[in-house]
């Protein structure tokens, strides 16, 4: 056996599927979508090879930077966990050599070996593999066995024709592969809530495009840049996001000119929903998504939601509706959008907030106020003059096969 004290050379990453393992006949489609997304996320690493199995995905590194690859994988939905691995022939000699190489490269002092033999034709049962490998490692005086809380856990999986030797288990993003559940249009305001809603939507396997309502000169270019940065942070989970910048100034001014001030936010949200629905249909999206949280502001009472929602027929998904603000903030910090969201560049909703917004609006009153001006023409103008910005997490190949 080769017992030289070399640093372990990881030649593979073993990926464990997440929630998609619960799928039956559709499992193959979920796995194919996951591999598609992985290739997009790892487009820069052109030497990688992917091997799909029923319950694992093996990525052959071919000497690619394993730390950089792992950082990208961390943002891909559909993965429960992953591990750097040494893939060796399934002989006891090769398994022993690989495990000893890993142990010799470690600065830990306690260890545990955990073998699992899926190939029942392999000559040694799991317990025998554990004892043989542990015996080799214990020949080095500094090592002690700790089966409950080891500093180093060496995991061995023996399959037909090969074995995988692993140590650390890194958590993935979970959920379903983005795109397997269709596409939705996210109303991205620039606050804390809507980026979290976008993240949770992607986690359920839904690809997203985003809409932002800009009201220059009342909202600044910095406010738009803030939203673009939020979209860039979210693009890590999808590879690419199409951002629709809607020129909302004329419509918003018409609302304040012809409407009742207390109803201004309600009318404004109704117009936003109408625009979002038109853009969603244009982009073949199946739902609208926003960051509304029940009772958080006047336009998010159940009465307000009902009146606002009534202007569209497509589903409106509210992923954070039942979360309190602290829970939303915690997720925002986890996905690194919080610090950008709290930058002091206001959007059109905060700039035009009335002093006493209505909390229990009625559809009849809204329709009466809307009848005072030609809102349909203004809504159509917003859609026609929408600017489209393509957002990437970093510089990427234009021809990449993204959503």
Automatic annotation (TrEMBL):
<keyword id="KW-0547">Nucleotide-binding</keyword>
<dbReference type="InterPro" id="IPR003720">
    <property type="entry name" value="tRNA_STrfase"/>
</dbReference>
<keyword id="KW-0820">tRNA-binding</keyword>
<keyword id="KW-0784">Thiamine biosynthesis</keyword>
<comment type="function">
    <text>Catalyzes the ATP-dependent transfer of a sulfur to tRNA to produce 4-thiouridine in position 8 of tRNAs, which functions as a near-UV photosensor. Also catalyzes the transfer of sulfur to the sulfur carrier protein ThiS, forming ThiS-thiocarboxylate. This is a step in the synthesis of thiazole, in the thiamine biosynthesis pathway. The sulfur is donated as persulfide by IscS.</text>
</comment>
<keyword id="KW-0963">Cytoplasm</keyword>
<dbReference type="Pfam" id="PF22025">
    <property type="entry name" value="ThiI_fer"/>
</dbReference>
<feature type="binding site">
    <location>
        <position position="300"/>
    </location>
    <ligand>
        <name>ATP</name>
    </ligand>
</feature>
<keyword id="KW-0694">RNA-binding</keyword>
<keyword id="KW-0067">ATP-binding</keyword>
<feature type="binding site">
    <location>
        <position position="291"/>
    </location>
    <ligand>
        <name>ATP</name>
    </ligand>
</feature>
<comment type="similarity">
    <text>Belongs to the ThiI family.</text>
</comment>
<dbReference type="GO" id="GO:0140741">
    <property type="term" value="F:tRNA-uracil-4 sulfurtransferase activity"/>
</dbReference>
<feature type="binding site">
    <location>
        <begin position="187"/>
        <end position="188"/>
    </location>
    <ligand>
        <name>ATP</name>
    </ligand>
</feature>
<dbReference type="InterPro" id="IPR054173">
    <property type="entry name" value="ThiI_fer"/>
</dbReference>
<dbReference type="InterPro" id="IPR049961">
    <property type="entry name" value="ThiI_N"/>
</dbReference>
<feature type="domain" description="THUMP">
    <location>
        <begin position="67"/>
        <end position="169"/>
    </location>
</feature>
<dbReference type="Pfam" id="PF02568">
    <property type="entry name" value="ThiI"/>
</dbReference>
<comment type="pathway">
    <text>Cofactor biosynthesis; thiamine diphosphate biosynthesis.</text>
</comment>
<feature type="binding site">
    <location>
        <position position="269"/>
    </location>
    <ligand>
        <name>ATP</name>
    </ligand>
</feature>
<dbReference type="Pfam" id="PF02926">
    <property type="entry name" value="THUMP"/>
</dbReference>
<dbReference type="InterPro" id="IPR049962">
    <property type="entry name" value="THUMP_ThiI"/>
</dbReference>
<dbReference type="InterPro" id="IPR050102">
    <property type="entry name" value="tRNA_sulfurtransferase_ThiI"/>
</dbReference>
<dbReference type="InterPro" id="IPR014729">
    <property type="entry name" value="Rossmann-like_a/b/a_fold"/>
</dbReference>
<keyword id="KW-0808">Transferase</keyword>
<dbReference type="InterPro" id="IPR004114">
    <property type="entry name" value="THUMP_dom"/>
</dbReference>
<feature type="binding site">
    <location>
        <begin position="212"/>
        <end position="213"/>
    </location>
    <ligand>
        <name>ATP</name>
    </ligand>
</feature>
<dbReference type="InterPro" id="IPR020536">
    <property type="entry name" value="ThiI_AANH"/>
</dbReference>
<protein>
    <recommendedName>
        <fullName>Probable tRNA sulfurtransferase</fullName>
        <ecNumber>2.8.1.4</ecNumber>
    </recommendedName>
</protein>
